[in-house]
UniProtKB/TrEMBL annotation:
This is Damage-control phosphatase ARMT1-like metal-binding domain-containing protein. InterPro entries: ARMT-1-like_metal-bd_sf (IPR036075), ARMT1-like_metal-bd (IPR002791), PH1575-like (IPR014444). Gene3D superfamilies: Uncharacterised protein PF01937, DUF89, domain 2, Uncharacterised protein PF01937, DUF89, domain 3. Coiled coil: none annotated. Residues 4-275 form the Damage-control phosphatase ARMT1-like metal-binding domain. The lineage of its organism: Bacteria, Thermotogati, Thermotogota, Thermotogae, Kosmotogales. It comes from Mesotoga infera. Pfam families: ARMT1-like_dom (PF01937).
Amino acid sequence: MKIDPRCIPCNMSALVRILSQNGVKREDQLSAARLFLKDMAEMDLENETPIEIGRKVGKALKVVLGEIDAFREVKKAANDLLLEVYDVLKEKLRALDDPLIGALKLSVAGNIIDFAPGHRIDIDATMRQALSIPFAIDDLEELSRRIKKAKSMLIVGDNCGEVVLDKLLMEIAEVPETYFAVRGEPTLNDVTIREALEVGLDSVANLIDSGADAPGMQEDRMNDEFEDIYTGADVVISKGQGNLEGLSSAKREIFFLLMAKCEVIGSFLNVPKGSFVAYRKA
């Protein structure tokens, strides 16, 4: 996926917002913005993906914040919120005529859950929404069929909170060899090995560091261990927008599960902003 001009101000706004939320003083915010703009001016905008812009945001944040995980508390709160209702959700999924389709839908519907501090999840309302919202691109039946036949499956993870629903999906799917890929280092609110272990993903999958240092996976930046699993897995599921941005031109078949949260992604997939998507890229 190529860079859309709208990606530049979007990432710039995100950089400033994150710095402000972390109490960074004006002078340091300007320094970070200056570094980001300098890096942007030197980028090959015609041949890079939007993920590379996200990588520049991460670089600017690191200069000001150091190795601090700016989203640590947000990630933990989102995961804890869903862990509280995990067993109830699992019970309700098991009661469906097709628990796997339900789990796939719910793993995408994590995008509509309010993770604000103090919020309580309405289980019944969440399930109703997850199961009733139509998918603008709907390859769920094909994905379900492939999972049921698969001996190995890789899920490339995305956000915390949503990752608890991915755990539920893997438990329902029961693929003999299941792998879950995490970011190589803290990147926005994406899941790293730390959060994966905290939510117990290691009980349902083999955890693997994708080597990604930006909010999305890219074939040309995979480490050797990850690439072997990625290449050999019967089914690969990519979660979220960032992974779509990096893997949309992948050399292998991938099932993309996401919500089109911005107009750029909506335009790329030819769906309205806010749409749920289960897209098989052959």
